[in-house]
Each structure stands twice: as C-alpha cells, then as structure tokens.
Design goal:
By secondary structure, the protein is of the alpha+beta class. The chain folds into two domains: about 15-255, Serine Threonine Protein Phosphatase 5, Tetratricopeptide repeat; about 265-380, Roll (Nuclear Transport Factor 2, Chain: A), CATH 3.10.450.50. The protein has helices spanning about 5-25, 30-35, 40-55, 60-70, 75-85, 95-105, 110-120, 125-150, 200-205, 235-240, 250-255, 265-285, 290-295, 305-320; strands spanning about 325-330, 335, 340-350, 355-365, 370-380. Strands 1, 2, 3, 4 and 5 form a five-stranded antiparallel β-sheet that branches. Helix 1 packs across helix 3, helix 3 (about 40-55) packs antiparallel against helix 4 (about 60-70) and helix 7 (about 110-120) packs antiparallel against helix 8. The longest helix is centred in the middle third of the chain and has 23 residues, at about 125-150. It starts with a helix and ends with a strand.
C-alpha cells in the first residue's frame, strides 16, 4: 500500500506539535476553576501540561504550590515556593505562602523571616501583616508559658494563617513585582510529584480550603502590657505607601505585552527610606555595631539620657534576647528639608520576652553622603 508524502507530513506535524497545542488550549483560569470545584488532582495534572510550554510561569507555579499544600504534599509545595523566591525575589506571594507552611509545623522563626521578606517586597500586603501578627503572638505565648514553666495550650497547627492567591484569584503580574525576571528556568527546580489517584471526594464535592482572616492575639511576659497590634493600614493610609494590586488572571495575549516601567522615587527620598530599612534590619539581626552606626554623633536620646549611657543600654538590649524581629509599616514618603529628612511609620517589635507596636518618628541628616539618625521619637 502506498502512503502519500502529505500523509507522512501530517502525522509528523501532529506528533511534533500536538502536545504544545494541547498546552496552549489550557488556561490558568480554567485550571483554577477546576480546582475550586474540588478536582485538585486533575487540576495538578493540567498544570503540569501547562508548565511544559511555560516552565517559569510564576502564576502557574504559585497555584501548583497552593494545590500541593492543600492535598498535604507540604515538602513539594515548600520546594516550589523556595524556587519562586529565588527566581522572583521581588514578589511577596511565595514568601508568605512558604511562611504559612512553616508556621503550621511550628517553625516560627523561619516563618517570621519569610513574612518579613514578603513585607520588604510589598509593604502594604494586609495578609502578610495579619500572618506576622499571629506568628508574633505565638512567639509571645510560648515565651510567657516558658516563663511560667507550663506548656503552651495553643498548638502550632491551630494558627489560622492565610495563603495568598489560594488558589483564586490568580495574581496579575505587576510591573513593580516583576521588574526582575527569573534568573533561570524553573523546570529543573520543580519537584517531581507523584499524584494520588483521584477519589470521588476530590473530584466532585470537596471545596477548596478556605483561610478566613483572624485577629491576632498576643501574650507577653512583661509586667507592663504592650500596646495592642493595630489594624492593618486603611485604604487612605495604604494610598500613601504602596497600594495592593487587584489580582486577576492575565489573558494569554496580555502576557506578551510589555509592562509599564515601575515608578521610581526620587534618589534622595529613596536613600532615606533605604537607610531606615537597613537600620531596622540591623536591629532585627542584632548586629549591634551596625545598628549604632546609623545614629549621628550628634544624636540626642529621648528621655534626657547621655549618648554614651544610651549606647550602652541599647547594646545590652540588642544582645540579651535570643531573637529580635522588627517590622516597619506605613513608612510614609520622607519629608525633605535640605539635608534633613523626617520619616514616620508604625514599628512592630517582638523578642523572646517582649512584643509591642508603636508609632515612631525619625529625623535624619545627611552626613558625609550618608543618612544618619539625629532624633528618634516614640509617639504616645
């Protein structure tokens, strides 16, 4: 029997381009809706097909991590979140979601570090603030129980933390978050996941896991009760910093369009904000000498202390705790007055024996090209 050359070419084209065409027919919206109906295993299989053509697709990998976490494959989900953090260090979602899984296993220090990372990338994420408040509350509760010699009654698994983009709505790529492309394809970093056989409960009736927000509670061992953790920034406050994006699924055509360049603050204002964040980071990491170097020789301590006495006191307070966590939020645009700048923000502090939240104002002055703190005021 003779076979025409056209028949051979058609068969070759189907074999070569069939899988790619099938992957292009899949959309994240349809996959996410499938997962929302409880068909998580089938959704994961479709995600794998989708990722064959787009191995570094952020939204698809994030959704896969969320679904793996929901079906109990925590290690695989953590591996995906970790690879996303390396490839997309300016996006907060993977930081937050990895922290959620770590906190559920009682790894609170790791969780706090990743939540701080999320807030570094996007200072207005309400979910990250709420999660961090709950983790800090657990820290304080454990410290209080340890001081009393009793076991904490709250298990780590009972912390109701919230995943970002879990699994809908799928976040739209934002210029400010995607300015730094992935350094390498994530195809080799994605774990090989052995999917279980779909059961009736997974394919039809199982609803997606919901993570409702919950007020943070804290217990401290200090005799003076710390101030309550304030509510996350209001819409008016958030508009002065960075407003959270509305997260929607991008269309295939939109993904090919160039994004608008991110808004870059003036160099002086950016330098002030960077100095303040570096000061807070040195404090959190208990690098005493680096922390003190952010203060001008002419710094005047609040309360009338001599500078040498203040420096000795600060050194002791940074070295004594086993850990320190400092988070700044509502960091407003610095007010510049020549070589002076005024910055206001809300400061969340937590250690193994104390936690509080205060409003703070820093006055900085440019000295030898560096911004140094000349006044630090804790608002009543």
């Amino acid at each position: 029997m003779r076979v025409s050359i056209w028949t051979i070419l058609v068969c070759f084209a189907v074999a070569a381009f069939g899988p790619m065409a099938a992957a292009q027919e899949l959309t994240l919206d349809s996959i996410a809706k499938l997962a929302e109906r409880g068909n998580r295993v089938q959704a994961l299989r479709q995600l794998d097909s989708f990722l064959e053509a787009r191995p570094s697709h952020f939204e698809a990998l994030l959704l896969k991590g969320d679904l793996l976490a929901e079906i109990g494959q925590t290690a695989s989900a953590e591996a995906i979140y970790g690879s996303l953090i390396e490839a997309y260090p300016r996006r907060p979602e993977a930081f937050n979601n990895l922290a959620v899984l770590q906190a559920r296993e009682g790894r609170f220090e790791e969780a706090a570090d990743n939540l701080l990372g999320a807030l570094e990338t996007h200072p207005s994420y309400r979910v990250a603030y709420e999660n961090l408040g709950k983790v800090y509350g657990q820290f304080a509760s454990q410290a209080y129980s340890k001081a009393l010699g009793v076991q904490s009654s709250e298990a780590s698994g009972s912390l109701d933390l919230t995943l970002l983009s879990n699994p809908l709505p799928i976040p739209e790529a934002s210029p400010s978050l995607t300015a730094e492309p992935p350094s390498a394809s994530l195809a080799s970093q994605r774990p090989q996941v052995e999917l279980p056989q779909a059961s009736a409960s997974q394919t039809s009736t199982a609803p997606p896991v919901q993570h409702p927000p919950m007020e943070a509670t804290e217990s401290q061992s200090r005799t003076e009760p710390p101030r309550a953790l304030p509510s996350p920034p209001t819409q008016a406050q958030a508009s002065q910093t960075t407003a959270p994006e509305t997260l929607t699924a991008p269309s295939p055509d939109a993904q090919s369009l160039p994004s608008q360049p991110p808004t870059v603050p003036p160099p002086a204002e950016a330098g002030v904000a960077s100095a303040v964040r570096s000061w807070a980071r040195a404090w959190s990491e208990q690098r005493v000498d680096d922390y003190l170097s952010f203060y001008s020789p002419s710094f005047r301590p609040q309360g009338g202390l001599a500078r040498t006495e203040w420096a000795s006191q600060r050194r002791s307070r940074l070295q004594s705790p086993t850990f320190i966590r400092v988070v700044l939020r509502n960091l407003l645009t610095p007010v510049l007055e020549g070589d002076r700048a005024i910055v206001t923000f809300i400061q969340s502090y937590s250690s193994d024996n104390y936690a509080d939240v205060v409003e703070k104002r820093l006055v900085l002055r440019r000295e030898a090209g560096e911004w140094r703190i000349v006044e630090e005021v804790t608002e009543p």
